[in-house]
Amino acid sequence: MGLISKRKNKKFSYSPRYYKSDKEGSPFEIEHKFDKYRTTVGKQGLKSNFKTAWQELRESKNKRANRTILIIFAIFLLIFLFIIEFDLSIFFQGF
User: Fold this and answer.
1) Cβ–Cβ contacts within 10 Å for residue 51, how many?
2) How do the domains of the chain map onto residue ranges?
3) Tens digits of per-residue pLDDT, 60-94?
4) How many whole angstroms separate alpha carbon 85 and alpha carbon 77?
5) What SS3 state is found at 68?
6) Which one of 19, 33, 41, 72 is most buried, counting C-beta atoms within 10 A?
7) What's phi and psi for 33, nearest 5 deg?
8) How far apart are the first and last CA of the chain?
9) In this structure, how many other beta carbons lie within 10 angstroms of the beta carbon of residue 66?
10) Among 5, 4, 3, 29, which Cα is nearest to 16's?
11) Is residue 41 a contact partner of residue 35, using CB atoms and an 8 Å limit?
């Protein structure tokens, strides 16, 4: 009966005929494309990803790229505030 229990997926044990496992890694193993370059890949949770990305951004050697990323982020933030019609004059009342 399909209503009470879920059907289990079939598992196949495929072993290629001419594959020699002496070499490094399996050609059938799927890994993330950016595993070699990013430290945030594989972490669980939004907070840990953000903390690791922020630390990587601060320790990066390419300061010009970091500044460009921050400028783009600020522009997107201002566009978002404009879209939701946020009143920016509350920051300038004292002047």
Assistant:
1) 13
2) 46-88
3) 777 787 788 889 999 999 899 888 888 877 777 76
4) 12
5) helix
6) 41
7) -65, -30
8) 73
9) 14
10) 29
11) yes
Local structure of 1: helix, strand or coil? coil
Task: Using alpha carbons, select from 54, 30, 32 the residue that is nearest to residue 41.
Answer: 32
Tokens of 83: 């879209």
Enter the tokens of residue 22. 């002496």
With contact defined as beta carbons under 8 Å apart, do 56 and 40 qualify?
yes
Q: Is the pTM of this model over 0.85?
A: no
Backbone angle region of 23, left / alpha / beta, with phi > 0 → left and psi within -120 to 50 → alpha: beta
Residue type, 28: F
DSSP assignment letter at 90: G
- Report the distance separating Cα 4 and Cα 6, nearest Å: 7
